[in-house]
Amino acid sequence: MSYSIHDLAQHAGAPMGILEMLFESLPSGAGRLYQARSFRKRRGGLREIIKPGHVLDAVTKNLHRSFSTELPYRPPDHVHGFVSQRSTLTNASAHLGKACVLRVDLEDFFPSINSTQLRAALQEQGYNEKAAELAIGIVTIAGKLPIGLSTSPFLSNLAFQDTDRLLAEHAAVEGLSFTRYVDDLTFSGAVTDQHYADIERIINDAGWSINSSKTAFMRRGGPQYVTGLYVGAEDRPRIPREIKRRMRWVSHIIAKFGYETYMTEFGGENADMLPQRLLGWARYIAAVEPDEGYDLLRLFHEVLPEQYISSSDIEWLMQINDLD
Questions:
Q1: 290-303 helix and 275-288 helix, angle to the nearest 10 degrees
Q2: Measured at the alpha carbon of residue 112, what is the angle toward residues 111 and 117, in degrees to the nearest 5?
Q3: Is the dihedral of CA 256, 260, 265, 268 positive or negative?
């Protein structure tokens, strides 16, 4: 199927005049159409994140929904980032109890994806030349894929699809398990230095770069972590011990002294442990290790302000209580 600029306007849920305004104004639209903030990375360097204004946000959200449903691209099974019903948990589950786990991180993944790559990718998906040109002028900033727009996750997977295929084919031939979560590539099995050399060649030949400081061989018997979860056991991924110890301590202090005392006298304010963050940790732990997480959710439901407890939290708690 071929998509025209009129189809693009329908996908964007906006009149053509709005799309043309964004196309013409985005190159100099900082402060009006979006705000850009830079954050220092833990290992040095800066990461720029875009916060779109109302118009750009609405258009890119509509485009994201349309891209995901209308275009023929579907993420392959090994891709777990930005894919419905997949997560860091499903990503880690592919690498349980393996002899060796190799982590390969891509350098500046989003900003390294440029408008030329994306224009070609959208044309391959059915957009004609004019529609692809107009779309790219809206979903990129300064010719690069920005972090912060709703369209960027889908487009990053779309731009990487050829490399995904090459890496998946290589892993299959070599008998390795392979997954990708955004810019985090994981290979497991009988992984060797030669495998890494071959993987590096495939990635470099495709025009991407590896962040060598984050490359890690994790062998059986030592720490093996995939997207933040321990995969050394064969039955299921687990939350790292230090996180569980920390949250057990926090829950103990809150249960004994109360949330306000924890915040003011036990470092909660310095750790920025606001109610939403505590609940976020509890939900995350519950998704991976239900027994641990459900205990935290029970406690937080009792001690945190009611407005922070979501309907899904209440449903979980009702189900847990029914099982007890």
A1: 160
A2: 110
A3: positive
